[in-house]
């Protein structure tokens, strides 16, 4: 089920890096650059246990935002988007559970498969949890300019509104 | 114990702001009225001198007044067909104030990472404690231990540092070959010697991790490489300290059993003495009270252990205790080259070793002395080889080992430019390991030539005497 406007989906599919913003225990935003992986319904990101502070924040407060802002990371596109949603940490098996997302990851970062084969060199990097984000609302800037109000789309019900 | 390590290098607010100014745009993040974060790209103007940053208020979005917001700069360089590199990011936080159409804030704190300043491997090592906290919390949540894993094969390889067994195989097989050249060879005890010596090194490798962990040296090391800094399996939570101590004991017990068997089969006072000294040097390498490597005696211990002791030990098993100059002289170049492996591997560890009170030679000596020390020892190893052949103690084909001189030159030239770059030094360390292995194999090849020549053309003189 498609829940996001098509241009936002295209950005998610193209982006080598997006910015995940979570809310920390003191109510402040914390932003982490991560690869967004989109399966047509939800956005997935993975986090090594080495850099798992974000997972603690998400477990305490699942409200997150993912932004795609860098033209360099999306093949030169100048449009931008932010997707707000509810995140869930999937950590049943940090050793291998996240590998179900590997096919999508490999499309963006082919080297990851070779790195994974050599996981003995950096074992903890490949102990990972999945962050599954269910989109609730998207903000889209067609020319990437924040001086212009974004087109806002509510994911549930696909209702659209002007900001 | 080593002092606690910062997870990432300290970044104060003004440093963060200066870094933020280098990005072409920034991602503003704040918490919206519905509790969801809002993030949007803006082009901020920063003034690192005053610590103030400002940007145009994004249209259609209400930046909360008197609330903390953040600005993040993020950069990658795409590498088509591979992924990306040149990763760096920085985030600066401050309390926002809106004045007309602009938002301003004073940078209060900052955080970030730039892989050109702190390599990904070092960043990962600095973050190991976070991984430990994660697994501890997950274990508490589930009420059952959850630990990181590796497949058995990879874990065994990493835990025992199996590939480094070449340090044992080279001198032991060489000792057996020299004895065979002199007419003394017994296959069963030769195999037992190789296996027993391998167990000694495996015990040493594992015990080394145990004692370096107990004494804080491995925990303090944030720049380990595949050649230095230990196996890290304890630090990573893959194997417990207790399991490692048990494994080291098992390896030493296996070595002792084989040693006793060899004593029973081919016993001699020389073999007993070599066995006892070898055991003391092996255990005392990192273990109190000797802690040889902590006192700057690691190179000497390794040179003796993986040079004369291994080679002469293997030799006297075959000769039933008879000693001669040939195996001793042949062991000296091998001893120097194996000591140089440790010597070079200690260079990237020197800061963490110093923090843990491990006073290795690279900790004690200045860079120029360490580099010149390498050159002097490498020259000495070849000089002994040539001298041994010149005086007729070693056979002429032993000079085949001189073919490794280009490798020694590569290491020598690579030390200085990579001295402060652990990951640049990795390639140099790799060549240095090959230098020892290839020199040993070529020495062995030399003895093989002697053995074959002795069988098919015994009248051909292969010694200069």
Task: Please characterize this protein's 3D structure.
The complex is a heterodimer of chains A (163) and B (465). Chain A is an alpha+beta fold. Chain A has a single domain, classed as Pnp Oxidase, Chain A. Chain A has 4 helices and 9 strands; from the N terminus they run αββββαββααβββ. Chain A has helices at 6-14, 53-60, 102-108, 111-117; strands at 18-23, 29-34, 37-38, 43-48, 63-68, 80-90, 128-141, 151-154, 160-162. In chain A, strands 1, 2, 3, 4, 5, 6, 7, 8 and 9 form a 9-stranded antiparallel β-sheet that branches. In chain A, strand 8 (151-154) and strand 9 (160-162) form a beta hairpin. Chain B has 465 residues and is of the alpha+beta class. Chain B folds into 3 domains: 13-117, Pnp Oxidase, Chain A; 119-148; 152-456. Helices cover 55% and strands 13% of the residues of chain B. Chain B contains 15 helices and 9 strands. Chain B has helices spanning 13-20, 120-126, 128-142, 152-160, 166-181, 187-214, 217-220, 241-266, 269-284, 298-319, 325-355, 361-364, 367-390, 405-415, 422-456, and strands at residues 26-31, 37-42, 45-47, 52-56, 68-79, 83-95, 97-99, 102-106, 109-114. In chain B, a hairpin with a 3-residue loop joins strand 5 and strand 6 (83-95). The radius of gyration of chain B is 29 Å and the shape is elongated. In chain B, 46% of the residues are buried. Classes of the chains: A alpha+beta (163), B alpha+beta (465). At the A-B interface, strand 1, strand 2, helix 2, strand 5 and strand 6 of A face strand 1, strand 2, strand 5, strand 6 and helix 3 of B.
List the topology elements.
The complex is a heterodimer of chains A (163) and B (465).
Chain A: H1 6-14, E1 18-23, E2 29-34, E3 37-38, E4 43-48, H2 53-60, E5 63-68, E6 80-90, H3 102-108, H4 111-117, E7 128-141, E8 151-154, E9 160-162
Antiparallel strand pairs in A: 1-2, 1-5, 3-4, 4-7, 5-6, 6-7, 7-8, 8-9
Chain B: H1 13-20, E1 26-31, E2 37-42, E3 45-47, E4 52-56, E5 68-79, E6 83-95, E7 97-99, E8 102-106, E9 109-114, H2 120-126, H3 128-142, H4 152-160, H5 166-181, H6 187-214, H7 217-220, H8 241-266, H9 269-284, H10 298-319, H11 325-355, H12 361-364, H13 367-390, H14 405-415, H15 422-456
Antiparallel strand pairs in B: 1-2, 1-5, 3-4, 4-8, 5-6, 6-9, 7-8
Helix pairs in contact in B: 5-6, 5-10, 5-11, 5-15, 6-8, 6-10, 9-10, 10-11, 11-13, 11-15, 13-14, 14-15
